[in-house]
Amino acid sequence: MQMKRKERVDRGIKVRTEGIYAISSWREILYLVFPRAILIFGLLSLPIIFELAPYWKRVINIMCVYAIIAISFDFLANILGLVCLGGGLFVGVGGYFSAILNSYFNFPIYLSIPLASISGSVFCTLLILPCLRLRGVYFAIITLIYPLFFTRVIEALNILGGTNGITGLDSFPNQFVENYLIIFILLVVLFGLRRLINEDIGLVMRAVKDNDQSVRASGINVTYIKTLAVFIASFIGCLSGAYLAHLYMWAGLSLFALDFSIIPIAAVTIGGGGSLVGAVIGSLIIVPLSEFLRFFGTFRIVIYSVILVLFLTLKSEGILVYLTRKYQQFERWISV
Amino acid sequence: MSILIVESLSKSFGGLKALSSVSFEVKKGEIFGIIGPNGSGKTTLINCITGFVKINTGKVFFEGQDITGLPPHKIAQKGITRTFQIMRPYYSLPAYKNLIIPLWSKRAKEFGGWRGGGKHGDRNTVAIDILEEIGFERDSKVPYKPASALPTGYLKRLELARCIALRPKIIFCDEIFSGLSVSEIAGLMPLIEKLKMEGITLIMVEHRLKELFKVADRVMALQFGEKIAEGKYSDVINDPRVKEAYLGSDEE
Fold first, then answer.
1. In terms of C-beta density within 10 A (0-12 exposed, 13-18 middle, 19 or more buried), how is residue B227 classed?
2. pLDDT digits (tens, 9 = 90+) for B82-93
3. I need a labelling partner for A182 at 20 to 30 A (CA). Which of A30, B64, B139, B211 fits?
């Protein structure tokens, strides 16, 4: 009997190693640009596609916010090796800082968002700094506790509007700005961070994940690298939090919600970790899905979990990893 | 001239005395061997000197400077590097990208790369130069393979390359010959001699005594955390206490 076997062949554009390409024709340039272009133009055209469905235009904003938080989670977890469940912390601190600046000090919206992002990320980094020695699940728990802690503090002391939150924040001028501001931020964050992780400092961060002892032996201060990465991640998180506060025109306790810590993990698992784009793809799937499932009422959590389990068992590597492999390799049957 | 002076260094983990009052000096440019049976404190000694483990009492001087209690990265920046007994490459990175990390550090920047490669010269090129020097064939696929796909012999070389990239003054080699075949060791020998020629001080912890004998200028023997002998290799190996440590005493 003749046996057959699947053979995988790389499309011959890579030279020896990751990141170096030999491009000799327009066709090959298109080959490289095509997936990136689809992502960029796909995201940019979303508000136009949903022009006639204002509810779904709102969902686009939320989806982008989750995508940014998922990128920040993916960056810390799969590049630096710190499993950080501080999404809720970043969003909450960013939102409240922006609300304080806008509502109490009357900063205009275009100042309060950037200022809140910077001051908020400094604040978050200072909070996380003492726990940087911890690893794995211990670090995850500490970062998960902070948002719960702040919720209780605000509730108990009845500061910053207490359970009602800070209301009456400035809104964005119109829906066009709302949509395209967050899409623009998402694209800048995504491509900026992807650039960073392929630079030499990104390699150092990946090395910290692999083995921090030998990074120390190479004369590099590991705590400094970790602090820098946490600062970047919390800056991104605070930025999306500040945006969210102005989108709702309100900063309340729900900005510290566990959703912001948990859903990014699901998004990264579905999309595939380590590439940052996987986090975006995952959010593109999971957020509209959960909106769509509202139709089923309380039953939605069941359907939601079933879909997640199916993804985890059938495509545990993540969609993006699977697609990348299909895109970069031919497959053909050969007889053995 | 002594490049490294260790004065009555002691370290205990809880009740266990890992090192008790070990003193020695290493001269510039020599190969200094440290031998001893399992659990005699050789690796702990390296950990103490390179700052990975805090010292209880004692002092370490490097080029006349007191470096006791400095964090590992500060000590590495002064030019004291080490390999690890259990190899610790960055498995997810290609072999040559492993060297970007030491080349990124402050010390490598001060030296402007390797052998006159420009101050902000391309680190990738410098990395491949170093790898070629240490026995990776430049035009083969080996330097571009992920470290997880390399055989042990190459990984040991990669450990050394990571030290060399930092332009060190002292390299601590923690059992660099262990787990290698005789021919692989023979391949490493010229490399070690070459490092010596370049004026780098090597301190080698080793179990393979025969191979150590070929390269070491002086040897120190440890047992239960105490120094029991020091001197020329032939003197140390014939010392009755060293024989007893390795083979057991006659009276039993």
1. buried
2. 998 888 888 888
3. A30
